[in-house]
């Protein structure tokens, strides 16, 4: 009974999605751009966030308080400041309307959150445990300790950056200048019009992309754990 | 071969945590670094381990500098206050991970040596505090280190487990010919476990010596009695009376290599201690060291 109730609550917001059939999925430039953005940004966020969090956890530096302040004090301030500042810079460098410009600005928005997630995860696991890993050779350390310990963190960062990327309609439209179509920018137009079928198709994509990414990473991590345990024994 | 620490300095913000520390540890020795909280002993240990960098000074092993060498290349392992086992691995896998050739037989043998046989597949959370420390010790030993660093490893254990682990560490370090550096704030523990003790105060070495020498020289190390080369803290010695009214001194404490209950008679108000235990000769003279000095009989 509890499970049924849980499913009802979970699926309630999607009720509109089941009300009519979406148009068949067309793999066009907008879908390709969206998928590229999701994978590149999820990957960059995981890589840069884990690296920065590791640096924050282990490195003594006079720059450390500045970095912490910039990243952790109210998160939206650096994100907003860097975004608007970047807009001006991107215009000056002629990067508005390019894939690189869109990816850069999306990274600026998501990275502070990713670093915070990674740092908090490492803080909870604890520096002493990571220090024990430092006594192991680097390959063994990464393979058998760091990846398995940070599996859930990687998954959370990837999901968070994906959701933010898919939700940033205005930024993509602004920096993309209409030249970088994505599922989100297209969705805005079809919502404004009357094509319900096309709206449903794009909404389904917005739901499926993060769900598949989350499930996919979880599956890959399970395989990693199995292989890792097998190799260890 | 030995570990040599020369003029190590470390400053955190405005405070000199280590202000020029010098000491050395001979191969095969258990050396204790004793000091109150904030005296710099753990920082010293972390610099030796490669987890912290020194502002000045050198750390050498067999005259080769260890500074700048990554932690995993120093052939040093570390045992902390709490068991730091990787939670996603079983107890055996934790040990296996540290063995150079990942041999299961070796890992099982290490578990046997720390009296955890049959716990290879146990989950880390199933272990008690004492078992966890023993498993951590097995992992530290499995890496075949030349130096093992012990960062107050007995602090969170109850007295019985503490005693067991102390004995185990002494036994295995002696068997394997390892060198160990123990950091502790507990002077009694240092005196009982270590071959030599260095006292750190305010980031500098105050004194170094064998437990016997320090017991005589440093009143702050408390009262110990040395019998046959074994130190006994006086707090653990009881005085009772036999039915004849003769006072008897019972030593309930704990030699370095096992529990030994000795019975010593105290005669006519002088500190003459006659052992009833077979390991001591009747009539032989022993020394009773007190805070004020040495009373010889």
From TrEMBL, chain B:
InterPro entries: AAA+_ATPase, ABC_SmlMolc_Importer, ABC_transporter-like_ATP-bd, P-loop_NTPase. Its EC number is 3.6.3.31. It comes from the Bacteria. The gene is potA_1. This is Spermidine/putrescine import ATP-binding protein PotA. It comes from Exiguobacterium aurantiacum. GO terms for molecular function: ATP binding; ATP hydrolysis activity. PROSITE patterns: ABC_TRANSPORTER_2. Residues 3-227 form the ABC transporter domain. Keywords: ATP-binding, Hydrolase, Nucleotide-binding, Transport.
């Amino acid at each position: 009974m509890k499970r049924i109730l849980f499913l009802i609550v979970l699926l309630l917001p999607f009720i509109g999605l089941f009300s009519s059939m979406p148009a068949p999925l067309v793999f066009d430039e907008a879908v390709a751009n969206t998928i590229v953005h999701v994978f590149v940004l999820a990957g960059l966020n995981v890589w840069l966030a884990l690296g920065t969090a590791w640096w924050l956890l282990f490195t003594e530096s006079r720059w450390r308080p500045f970095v912490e302040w910039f990243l952790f004090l109210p998160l939206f301030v650096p994100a907003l400041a860097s975004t608007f500042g970047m807009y001006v810079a991107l215009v000056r460098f002629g990067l508005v309307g390019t894939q690189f410009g869109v990816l850069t600005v999306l990274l600026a928005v998501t990275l502070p959150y990713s670093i915070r997630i990674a740092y908090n995860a490492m803080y909870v696991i604890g520096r002493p445990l990571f220090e024990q890993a430092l006594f192991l050779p680097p390959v063994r350390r990464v393979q058998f300790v760091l990846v398995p310990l940070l599996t859930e963190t990687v998954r959370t960062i990837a999901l968070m950056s994906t959701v933010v990327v898919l939700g940033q309609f205005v930024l993509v439209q602004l920096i993309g200048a209409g030249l970088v179509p994505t599922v989100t920018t297209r969705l805005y137009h079809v919502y404004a019009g009357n094509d319900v079928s096309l709206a449903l198709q794009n909404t389904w994509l917005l739901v499926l992309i993060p769900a598949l990414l989350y499930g996919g990473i979880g599956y890959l991590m399970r395989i990693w754990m199995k292989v890792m345990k097998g190799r260890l024994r | 071969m030995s570990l040599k620490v020369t003029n190590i300095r470390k400053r955190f913000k405005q405070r000199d945590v280590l202000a020029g520390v010098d000491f050395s540890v001979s191969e095969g020795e258990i050396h204790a670094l004793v000091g109150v909280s904030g005296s710099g002993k753990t920082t010293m240990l972390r610099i030796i381990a490669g987890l912290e960098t020194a502002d000045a000074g050198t750390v050498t092993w067999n005259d080769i500098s260890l500074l700048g060498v990554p932690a995993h290349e120093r052939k040093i392992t570390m045992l902390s206050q709490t068991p730091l086992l990787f939670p996603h691995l079983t107890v055996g896998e934790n040990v296996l991970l540290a063995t150079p050739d990942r041999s299961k037989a070796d890992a099982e043998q290490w578990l046997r040596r720390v009296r955890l046989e049959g716990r290879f597949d146990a989950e880390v959370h199933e272990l008690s505090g004492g078992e966890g420390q023993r498993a951590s010790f097995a992992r530290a030993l499995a890496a075949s280190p030349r130096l093992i660093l012990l960062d107050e490893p007995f602090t969170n254990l109850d007295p019985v487990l503490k005693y067991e682990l102390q004995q185990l560490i002494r036994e295995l370090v002696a068997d394997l010919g390892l060198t160990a550096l123990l950091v502790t704030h507990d002077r009694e523990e240092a005196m009982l476990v270590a071959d030599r003790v260095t006292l750190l105060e305010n980031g500098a070495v105050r004194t170094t010596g064998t437990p016997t020498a320090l017991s005589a020289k440093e009143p702050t190390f408390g009262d110990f009695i040395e019998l046959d080369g074994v130190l006994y803290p006086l707090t653990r010695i009881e005085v009772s009376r036999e039915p004849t009214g003769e006072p008897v001194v019972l030593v309930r404490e704990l030699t370095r290599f096992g529990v030994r209950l000795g019975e010593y008679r105290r005669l006519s108000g002088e500190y003459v201690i006659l052992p009833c235990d077979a390991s001591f000769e009747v009539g032989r003279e022993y020394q009773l060291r007190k805070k004020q000095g040495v009373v010889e009989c």
